[in-house]
Amino acid sequence: MAKSEEVHPVKTFGWAARDTSGHLSPFNFSRRATGGEDVRFKVLYCGICHSDLHNIKNEWGFSIYPMVPGHEIVGEVTEVGSKVKKVKVGDKVGVGCMVDACHNCESCANDLENYCPKVILTYNGIYSDGTMTYGGYSDSMVANERYVVRIPDGMPLDSAAPLLCAGITVYSPLKYFGLGEPGKHIGIVGLGGLGHVAVKFAKALGSKVTVISTSPNKKAEALEHLGADLFVVSRDQDELQAAMGTFDGIIDTVSAVHPIMPLLGLLKSHGKLIMVGAPTEPLELPVFSLIIGRKTMAGSGIGGMKETQEMIDFAAKHDIKADIEVISIDYVNKAMERLGKGDVRYRFVIDIGNTLAATKP
Q1: Global model pTM greater than 0.85
Q2: Cβ atoms within 10 Å of 3's Cβ, excluding its own
Q3: What is the pLDDT of residues 208-223, one digit of tens each?
Q4: Burial 151-181 (b: 16+ CB within 10 A, else e)
Q5: 329-341, pLDDT tens digit by residue?
Q6: Rounded Cα–Cα distance for residues 248 and 259 (Å)
Q7: Residue 255's CB: how many other CB atoms inside 10 A?
Q8: Burial class (CB in 10 A: 0-12, 13-18, 19+), 199
Q9: What is the largest CA-CA distance in the chain?
Q10: How far apart are the first and last CA of the chain?
Q11: What is the pLDDT of residues 270-282, one digit of tens each?
Q12: Could you tell me which residues are beta bridge partners of residue 297?
């Protein structure tokens, strides 16, 4: 059971969900004082991730209320601890999906804090002192400098925010599984918040990219706007048949239940199907389809802090931005409704800096 946040001295204001209805409304809470290794920053923008929608409604079964969501957080540094070396007051920074880990395990030693058994999530988690973690739908944020990402000069903050979750979620498997490189043919399943940035990163890394979608009306968007090389309608058996055995790897970004066997059929021998979407119900796994062709099905979740900084720097160098719709905080409940229907192109970002203060009771 988490302690009351009132043990912290810094008054903070945000929007929170109080129960499984997921309805968000104004919420006063507090954050810890700035420690020696901490960075405090004014939140300017916060992206809305599909996991925010799952969490505010407790669809994954481990939600803690009240909940201030948001793990795609960017802003401007207002205070640093005496031991901080990475950033200074005035710098633009971000915080993604995690704010702490054990720093003693093998994963932490290998810069993979995201796989630490004791990782502490940016929101809906409990700090080592027993208090709740609250996310970026709020006016300020404080985090250990290890979990703070430097946003390169000139990078637009609003479209950079979603990269702190969506960007690293697709960049990490492209790198780890050797899929994002010249000569590789990669499929991206789903053209949503994750999928559209996956196309951009895969292309920038040199891969040939095919978008695999149930929606034929997304073809022009995928090819002309996002720069994909090919487009396959997953409900068209002729198109699927023509593409059989042609992919080195597939990044599956879909968070709804969907058939896996057709995707495995698209892979070459030794091909890799990497799951980064998180359906709320189990998927059916056709093992025989893995055995024939020695294919691999794996999962991947965000990345460590070193790789997250690498991803942001790569995105800035290659002008990779999320396609966003900027909203005010008082539109957030409507945005969640639209997100549930897939009605966003492709990521909502809340303008915290200009709209949050006006909603204080």
Answers
A1: yes
A2: 13
A3: 999 999 999 999 999 9
A4: beeebebbbbbbbbbbbbbbbbbbbebebbe
A5: 999 999 999 999 9
A6: 19
A7: 19
A8: buried
A9: 63
A10: 28
A11: 999 999 998 878 8
A12: 273
